[in-house]
Design a protein that fits this description.
The chain has a 7-stranded parallel β-sheet, with helices on both faces. It has a 4-stranded antiparallel β-sheet with strand order 2-3-1-4, sandwiched between helices. A 4-stranded antiparallel β-sheet has the order 9-10-5-12. It contains 11 helices and 17 strands. It is α/β, with parallel strands linked by helices.
Amino acid sequence: MRGLRAALLLALLAAMPFQAHAAGEDAPRILMMLRLAPAHFRAGSGYGGGYGEDQSAAARRRIASAVAKRNGLRLAGNWPMPIIGVDCFILTVPKGRAAAEAAAQVARDSAVEWSEPIETFEAQGDPTPNDPLYRAQPVARAWHLAMLHRTATGRGARIAVIDSQVDARHPDLAGQVAIERNFVDGAGVAAERHGTGIAGVIAARPDNGVGIVGIAPGAKLLALRACAEQGAGAATLCDSLSLARALSFAVEQHADVINLSLAGPPSRLLETLLRIGVARGATVVAAYDPKLPGGGFPASMPGVVAVAETAVGQAGGPYAAPGRDIPTTQPGGRWYLASGSSYAAAEVSGLIVLIREAHAPSRRPALVSARPGGGEIDACASVVGKAKCAGLPR
């Protein structure tokens, strides 16, 4: 039953007509899932994002309105999916009232399947061949990147970058972005630093005479904007609703790797979607935040590859990759140094598709640790094999 519910939820999020809200809005919101039988659905009728001829639409909304009213909340929108008999409603919580308390109260209502707050997540990084910055890349030496690229470049792989807006016209990213989507409120947005930097670490073009070389330059990116910069020099924030929309899209698009260079509190909605992605063969890579329990969510979730920068990673903990003073792409055709677990996670996302390509047809990526017990990754051994990498300087 749980697996069926998860599959239905993915279909719901992929199809629902919805206008996202920007991360960081003042009024807290929660999501409410209702158990509603599709009594009037007729086999063979198409779904176009609404109820069509299903006359129970008004009744369904009245039920949701009643639940909202008796819990002191305001109904802000919904996504009807009669084909699966589930409606997802957004409820706005009055200022001064905790969203978690409101969600828990709503969840006790007999009409509700479950309810949860829309949480906030933060990106885990601080921007501080013949490609001129290649020698400055820590992975050029530590990971023997040129040697790895003689074996694999990530050709044919699809990596979902769920982050802020990527500058797809950057000279190091031109042609590397296969799909762009915005799941944050507002149709148009300028390129943003964090998403552009993550994209460059993963897939910057090689041998184009400028900038850097991505870990997996043969891969194509799905640039899915679910996060927003809060101003110059400020944090990059996402909420669980925009993340869920982007994540469901990535899974439906059969992304090989899903990069989540962010961390926040647990979310049942996101965990449900991540389980579907992993079950369908995607590898999920997340940034590890040492300030949060278990490194934060989704890094703490079983089945997710948690990555910290080398200075943070340790045996028995998350995987570790270079994460300090990483030269990478920035909006407007620029490059800059960046630091943080965000960029370490991006490196591992690229490494995963190199391993998949090198070990095809099994395509089962296995990260090899440099030391027993985990911690720092031996990228060369992971892609090429320990025997060929023995004795190489680190």
